[in-house]
Every structure is written in C-alpha cells, then in structure tokens.
C-alpha cells in the first residue's frame, strides 16, 4: 500500500529515471576496446654522426611516427612502426569514446543529485507549510 506520508517517499522513486539512463550509459563501456592516451605525430631526428648528410641539412632522418603522452607529470614518447599507427589510432579514439561515456555518467549523476535535492527541499517546505497556516493573523 503506498503511503501518503511524504516522509515515507523513498528517494528511489525519484532516482529511478536517472538510474535507468545511467545503466544504459554505463553499459556502453562494455563495447569500448583497449584505450590509450596520447597523440601521434611525425618527427625528424638527427643521428649524431658528424659526417652524416642529416647534420649538414639540419633536417635529421625520417620523419618517423612517434606517440607522445603525459605520465606522472612528465612527457613520454616512443617511436612507432607505421604498421602500428592504425591500431594505436583506434585505441586513442577508444579513450575519447570512454571519456564521453564517463562525462555522460557524471552529468546524469549531477542531474540526479540536483533533482533529489530540489525534491527534498520541496518536501521539507511542504511539511512546514501547515504550521505557517496555523500562525495567528
Ligand atoms: Zn644522420
């Protein structure tokens, strides 16, 4: 039997639509493959041999693919075989997809937090109202 006492109204009723959308959004994480942070660029490198043409031209060798990322407050990088570039790009894209899903989970949670806060404020207000009506005029 549903209670008419607003004190008995569970938060779960208010949260149901948010939990539903949250679950749907969270389920999308399942489809995300390996994730990688960083960016892929091309870089020319001098070899250091004093007689090499790369020293005279000042251009270095390459360009070679390189992935660069931040780790523990430092920038790290590794040279990358061209064969691996498509795979790495896919993993980088997966990280962006994961970011968008997590952002959505955070915004749904924020909406839920706002909704219960405003519902709770109205509920408290409703309980105070009768007292105000009883106030002598
Ligand atoms: Zn060289």
What small ligands are held by the chains? zinc ion
Overall structural class, as computed from helix and strand content, comes to alpha+beta
Helix count from the secondary structure assignment: 3
Rg over CA atoms, rounded to whole Å, is 29 Å
- Strand portion: 15-25%
Unreliable stretches covering 5 or more consecutive residues: none
Please outline the helices and strands.
Elements: H1 11-27, E1 39-45, H2 53-57, E2 61-71, E3 74-80, H3 85-134
Antiparallel strand pairs: 1-2, 2-3
Helix pairs in contact: 1-3
Bound molecules: zinc ion.
Zinc ion (ZN) binds at residues 46-47, 49, 52, 54, 61.
How would you portray this structure in words?
The structure is a single chain. With 137 residues, the protein is of the alpha+beta class. The chain has one domain (12-128). Helices cover 53% and strands 18% of the residues. The chain contains three helices and three strands; from the N terminus they run αβαββα. A hairpin with a 2-residue loop joins strand 2 and strand 3. The longest helix is centred in the C-terminal third of the chain and has 50 residues, at 85-134. It binds zinc ion.
